[in-house]
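Hello,

I think I submitted the manganese (II) ion job twice by accident. Can you confirm which output corresponds to this input? Input:
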Amino acid sequence: MSIPASEFKRRRKQLMRMMDKDSIAIIPTAQTYIRNRDVEHPFRPDSDFHYLTGFSEPDAVAVLIPNRKSAEYILFCREKDPERELWDGLRAGLEGATEIYEADDAFPIDSLDEILPRMLEQCERVYYAMGCNHELDHRMSEWIGQLRARTRTGVHGPLEFIALDHYLHDMRLYKSRSEQKVMRAAAKTSAKAHIALMKQCEPGMHEYQLQAEFAYQCAQKGATSQAYPSIVGGGNNACILHYTDNSEPLTDGDLVLIDAGCENACYASDITRTFPVNGTFSEPQRQLYQLVLDAQKAALEQIKPGNHWNDPHDAAVKTITHGLHELGLLKGKPDALLKESAYTKFYMHKTGHWLGMDVHDVGDYKIDGQWRMLESGMVLTVEPGIYIPVGSKGVAKKWQGIGIRIEDDVLVTKQGYDILSKDAPKEIDEIEALMAS
Ligand code: GLY
Ligand code: MN
Ligand code: MN
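Support: Only one job matched these inputs. Its output is below.
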């Protein structure tokens, strides 16, 4: 399942409609990075570039010039090269760029220095995301410098640079039907993998075994990349928010927190489940888990068009503050505790983020200083948590070494919300029953 070619075309047209006249947009794909010596890190195309082209090869730059008669969409990419293709895999080549990827014209990437300055010369405005690709930033300033040097010959280069990300990232925030389908499929695959982990987990296994099992389960369903490095934290490790060592054994009596999600057609899923290593919650674990679950449900109830971005977070911290107070973990008056954000001792992150091609997806959270309104078609995560590391001052021993997060992927609908990751169980009874089966 992937995004149809017609949609990439529609996106390019939409962006070109927003651009001023006599303008050009330049969008490079991601750079390749060396891991060590002649081994590269796995290549993943830049999300903005892929959003507009669907093209997955490295060494490519897309150029859009609205209303240009000869060609509006030009793709610079690698030429076909049978010898290199024998080593590194097939390339679309210039023919593939026009025939498969529907570019109006295509040029070898090696000709960028020769051809792009001539295109720039014709334009008044350049839409470009400065600071994202240092190599291209550098070449861009060289090209502009060369044009300046030729002013006495009547050449004048662009007058204005405009932040392309501002336009593109707003488009990316609203997910089309096919994007929703692709994201739902990613979340379903990840949810199934989380279920498999619940079934297989037992004391003595290592965190990395669950990480490997997650990747295996996703790959079995065709999702061969992860949207981000999996977090598998047993016991106290769950209190390290970005724990990715995943190197320790899982202990009987501990919880394990798994934050893992696959990528499908360059779209992310991002799911966290926390469950007991031995299949049964202890009483303190049960109390804290139920509190996080209640906070998540309170946050979800705030998701509907017209509510603002921070409403789910406000609802979650209210529930967590009251709950921690009832359990004796926060002392004082609940209203005062809320006012002074006392919960941040145990809940130190926000309740979610936009989700899309990037796990922490693009899109502004505030507009003119105000939290943005939720609108149908947006996708966000809802992920409250409570973290009580070993050694926490003034906290009874029974609570220490417990880290819990529950995270779902949520589509804002006309009526409210739809949980894309709903297949992954999160009720205590459901989890215990599944782990006992
Ligand atoms: N997996 C990263 C996050 O939940 O934000
Ligand atoms: Mn997340
Ligand atoms: Mn996550």
